[in-house]
Amino acid sequence: MSDRRFAYSPAAGAVADDARVSDYVALLKPRVMSLVVFTGFVGLYLAPGALHPVLALTAMLCIAVGAGAAGAINMWHDRDIDARMTRTRARPIPAGRIEPGAALGFGITLAVGSVVVMELALNAMAAALLALTIMFYVFVYTMWLKRRTPHNIVIGGAAGALPPAIGWAAVTGDVGLTALVLFAIVFVWTPPHFWALALIRADDYARAGVPMLPVVAGAAKTKRYVLGYTVALWPLALLPSLLGFAGVVYGVGAALLGALFVVCALRLRTDATGRAARQMFGFSILYLFAIFTLLLVDNNPGLVG
Domains, the chain, ranges and CATH? Predict the structure, then answer.
């Protein structure tokens, strides 16, 4: 397949023959998928009503496969960028282990399959939200925003914030206030999470021509934005307790986690070594897992004995 945007590595060899199962798994961005699946599960768990365990497992599998499909199509479209970045040049497509057309076909097949199964096994609302998530990530974030604006991740973050609403809709067939609050928490969490990574990889993004905020506006302005979003997230994450769908355990935990997140952002503003950015990025992942774990615990005290 001829594609002037795709550069095979010198040692790529026969692309189709070199592809392994692990390469196709890598296309799904499994680390990103783990966050998506977990937040989707919490949305499903908190929803009123109940699903048969098989249907619940099916819903989670559809969310995972849909997220992976979006990741595979993203890697297909961004293969030229990935080939120029140290962090991503070993991915299966720029490394020459998977041919671009095969990756695109793989992603499209999984995307369509996940939405169809969600519709047939669960309901139309959950399927529609899953389709919206995939299309928003592919068309709005990947193809439109990523190469055009330093605020790409602010708008594009909506795709990663939708899984809790999908999980909720899989049970209820609609989108309630709880699902919207969970969406808002992930949506506001996303920019400081990714901007911390962008600060670490600013040279990589500059070399690839991606206008991430640190590349366009500089580190100092990016750090101010990170602080602003973490401060905004602090009270927002308390809404589950204030609205009554979480209790004291969650409220206290969310307040402490929010305070620590703000402390990380304050340290980031005064650090010029890159160490605070790495700590901020690592803590942001822990923060999201912890917040959603607290929601599970607070709604099922038996989880902690």
Answer: 21-175 (1.10.357.140), 176-305 (1.20.120)
Full DSSP string of 41-61: HHHHHHSSS---HHHHHHHHH
- At 47, give phi and psi (nearest 5°): -65, 140
Residue 167 to residue 164: CA distance in whole angstroms:
5
pLDDT in tens, 72-87: 999 999 899 888 888 8
275 Cβ partners below 8 Å, 6+ apart?
none
Instruction: Report the candidate in 236, 148, 155, 238 with the shortest Cα–Cα distance to residue 191.
Output: 155
Which element (helix H / strand E) includes 221? helix 219-236
Structure letter (DSSP) for residue 256: H
Q: Which residue has 């409220």 as its token pair? A: 251
Three-state SS at 305: coil
Asked if residue 179 has pLDDT above 80, the reply is: yes
> In the structure encoding, which two tokens stand for residue 271, read together?
């650090």
pLDDT tens for 108-154 read 999 999 999 999 999 999 999 999 999 999 999 998 988 888 888 88
Structure tokens at 236: 């927002």
